[in-house]
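Fold Annotation — chain and its backbone
Encoding — discrete vocabulary of local shapes
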Amino acid sequence: MCTGVRFTGKDGEMYFGRNLDWSCGYGESVRIMPKGFPVRYQFLDDAPAAHAAIGMCVDYLNYPMFFDCGNGAGLAVAGLNFPGYAAYADAPEEGRTNVCAYEFPLWVAASFSSVDEAEAALRDVTIVGASAGEGLGVSYLHWIIGDASRSIVVEAREDGVHVLDDPVDVLANQPSLEWHLENLRSYITATNDFPGEATWRGAKLAPYGAGAGMRGIPGDCYSPSRFVKAAFLNANYPEKDGERDNVIRMLRTLEGVAMVEGAARMGNGDFEKTLYTSCFSAKTGTYYYTTYDDPAIRHVSLSDAAGAPANKLVCPEPSREW
């Protein structure tokens, strides 16, 4: 399971982050895809990347299967688990732009400069459920795409590809985005305000302290609960100025919906936990991240790939100084 969040700072620059929750890692690592990188597609013509991109991925034979990434134009994308709802085409469809599910984040980051550009291209897209290689499965996902102006969610379902505006700039897992947004109405009375005293007949009632207005906002690990809490935190977190404070805002927001080992057992008996938390700064092209076993903030930047050959992914040494 996973949670994604987007917001802008006081200067209008975007910050885009996510938790990746699962019981085990996939050998994921941060990679930089240089501009001009020769992107291989299964059902599209291979093409050099129009934009450099940085993010967390499985590096499969010099091919970045991104979990989430941001590009040099300030566009970012993340894939989140969507089983039971995602439905892909079994084969490419004639006359359509056929993108495999594992290719989707790379295709978005390599090809487009804005949400508007991506949304226009998505009108003709079919998501194909093909594997990246022998022995590799197919993950059933939906995606959040964001820039400095807004975010959208892309869901491939039985009746086709849905492209949806995301007014709260948050995504979790199943059910659909429409269901999550409708569910928010159940929490319309939640507030971050300090409540005043109340009188019930002869009894004067005073709050124990701050937080009483938030009562009812869920705090469990269930997907609908994480969506509600992340939306509440994202809507109420005070606007921040400067990269450092905005990165901290992202990491603290996602910490509020992180999964702690032992709290949520999966169907196979394993416990989920937040393997990593990320934050992409569109202003500087920097990718910040922490991991479950190491909460120190590390970061790499698109500028770390300066001068690197375009045909190879770059694996820079992360810095802990910022």
About this structure: DSSP finds five helices and 19 strands in the chain. The longest helix spans residues 223-236.
